[in-house]
Amino acid sequence: MRIEVVTLFPELVEAVAAFGVTARARERGLWTLGTHNPRDFTADRHRTVDDRPYGGGPGMVMLAEPLERAIRAARAALCASGVVAPRVIYMSPQGEALTHRRVAELAEQAGMVLVAGRYEGVDERVLERMVDLELAIGDFVVSGGELPALLLIDAVVRLLPGTLNDVQSSVQESFVDGLLDCQHYTRPEIYEGRTVPAVLLTGDHAEIARWRLKQALGRTWLRRPELLAARGMSEEEAALLDEFKREQGATAF
Ligand code: 9D3
């Protein structure tokens, strides 16, 4: 996977991508990162990348020309390494909400261009000419497209074969099945007077798996009922959730 990011803050993108799972995957050659700064595609003495909005109002708008030239350079970098017709994705508050389904689809691509905006936005004509898809990370406002682009990169790189070890991959599978995770505990057995659920100390793997699924169903029902509705339940799962609900009535949560 080859990812090219168009950004006024290439150091920010490089710095975040240099840690953790994404950094290790990059060292393993599972993906590459390139950055392209619109400021390097300006022609004036001040290297101007923004201007005031037509129609007035607060804030600035990213100029079309330096941005378009940076996007073209990003596409050219991908084409030069054999990626045909890469998608150009604009990270935007007006975009479609990012989902696991979309992340999985993007993880299948050979490469992509991510455009991170700053200021109030970018000149619409660049979007019309260059952008294939707009993506948002949620219904909240952040200061620019870099962190959203990094979040997308992190989610995509995790899905590349070889990024996670087998244990992590199987844990990921279990989240992708549409339930929230169950609770986790490690030593000590009693922490500040709080014990670990007894079943986890029994060594009875079938009983532990049953308890974990029950907790996952119960927490999803409590916290994200819309996920359960979208996913549906087997008969066994419905019985486990009933059990959770009965226990809930008896337990302070
Ligand atoms: C007052 C109108 N605002 C739009 C909601 C202005 C504005 C706020 C923040 C314009 C750009 C930005 C910068 N945000 C992003 O570039 C961004 C973003 C986000 O703010 N929320 C969720 N997803 C994304 S993806 C890119």
Question: SSE layout and pairings?
Answer:
Blueprint: E1 2-6, H1 10-17, H2 20-27, E2 32-36, E3 50-51, E4 61-62, H3 64-80, E5 87-97, H4 100-107, E6 111-116, E7 121-122, H5 124-130, E8 133-136, H6 146-158, H7 166-176, E9 190-191, E10 194-195, H8 205-223, H9 225-231, H10 235-250
The chain binds ligand 9D3.
Residues 91-93, 117, 120-121, 136-138, 140-145, 148 line the site of ligand 9D3.
List keywords for this structure.
single chain; 253 residues; alpha/beta; Alpha/beta knot; Trp Operon Repressor, Chain A; binds ligand 9D3
Number of strands: 10
- The best one-word shape is elongated
Strand order of the largest sheet: 2-1-6-5-8
Radius of gyration based on Cα positions? 23 Å
How much of the sequence lies in strands comes to 15-25%
What structural class results from the helix and strand content? alpha/beta
The succession of helices and strands, N to C, reads: EHHEEEHEHEEHEHHEEHHH
Level-2 CATH architecture of the largest domain? 3-Layer(aba) Sandwich
What is the fold-level CATH name, i.e. the topology of the largest domain? Alpha/beta knot
Ends distance: 44 Å
Helix-residue proportion: 40-55%
Overall structural domain count: 2
Major beta-sheet overview:
5 strands, parallel
CATH class of the largest domain: Alpha Beta
Poorly predicted ranges: none
Q: Ions, cofactors, ligands: which are bound? A: ligand 9D3
